Amino acid sequence: MEMVVVAPPASGKLDDLKRRFFATPLQAVISLLSLSVIVFLVWKLLNWAVFSAVFDASGGADACHAASGACWSVIAARWRIIFFGLYPYEEQWRSALACVTVVAMTVLSCIPAFWTGRRIALVWGVGAAVFYVLMKGGFLGLSFVGEEMWGGLALTLFIFVTTCLIGFPLAICLALLRRSELPWISRTTGLIIDGVRSLPLISILFTFAIVLPFALPQWLQGDKLYRVILGSALFFSAYQAEIVRGGMQGVPRGQEEAAMALGLSYWHRISRILLPQAMRNALPATINQFVISFKETSLVVIVGFFEILASGNAAYGTGEWRFAYVEVYAFIAMIYFVFVFSLSRYGAFLERRMSVGER
């Protein structure tokens, strides 16, 4: 006779709440005090940011002085500087469309249907080309706008996209070189990777922006923006190379040996067997590296670029809005939060997707 085991009824949410936070009198007191502090802080924040805040820019800075809350009027009055920097006013639609292009390119990259080398390369290559054409112009009826006029969110996204576009293929090359069977190649590559990783990014940016022109001939120096991007891409590739190499180590050795036994060439083994599985293993860590790289774009302000943080400084830098720096930085922080949180949640989705063996 088959025995049927009846599971005990699960405790309700209220019972679980009592068990977690009100199991003892002391725990109940601590929980209530903590809840009171949280409610108080949330109320103060909402009162400052919403209920007592000033949103209308028509009253100018004088309306903010009379209010007790945040002065969001500075955002309403100066948002163009924050988003577009020094870009010509009549051409700012191009900068806005370029930012939309980057967002669309990122969204497409997150769709599993595009998770092949050719499709990802096509999406990023076309997206970067469209972004560059929109920003710089000079043909297709668009007026020319030099890189010195770029700024705001568009410049931040440009540095991020080009850093990943250059750094990711370079990272794959470094990872493959480091696992080479020739000791002098693998050790030299490992020395380069470890050397770059041992330096802070700001020192690399400073070297590429300021020091490198003294060591290069005039024809090889190029624009400072592109030198900074190359330095950022080198830094990105050193960290991403180790992520890719870790993904390769997660692929069973027997698969590559079986491919060799079947007579597959080196490039077929790498492109058809090793790299697809390695990139799948390294996807969550790769998303995390993208998040870090996006946040690190703010460091280019140190070497004189007018990215979104510098644009924010200019937005409240006039005498009329000088007091509203907290609101400007809070708005910029919210922009960073939207991009970074979206990428982070996507990384969490990838971890859940791979944990159940979906493809």
From TrEMBL:
Membrane-crossing segments per the record: 21-43, 93-115, 122-144, 150-177, 198-219, 328-349
Membrane topology classification: Multi-pass membrane protein
Domain of life (superkingdom): Bacteria
Residues in the signal sequence: none
GO biological process: amino acid transport
UniProt keyword annotations, A-Z: Cell membrane, Membrane, Transmembrane, Transmembrane helix, Transport
UniProt GO molecular function: transmembrane transporter activity
Cellular component terms (Gene Ontology): ATP-binding cassette (ABC) transporter complex
Ranges where the ABC transmembrane type-1 domain occurs: 153-344
Main location: membrane
Pfam family, one: BPD_transp_1
Subcellular location: Cell inner membrane; Cell membrane
PANTHER family for the chain: INNER MEMBRANE AMINO-ACID ABC TRANSPORTER PERMEASE PROTEIN YHDY, MEMBRANE COMPONENT OF AMINO ACID ABC TRANSPORTER
Family: Belongs to the binding-protein-dependent transport system permease family. HisMQ subfamily.
Official protein name in the record: Binding-protein-dependent transport systems inner membrane component
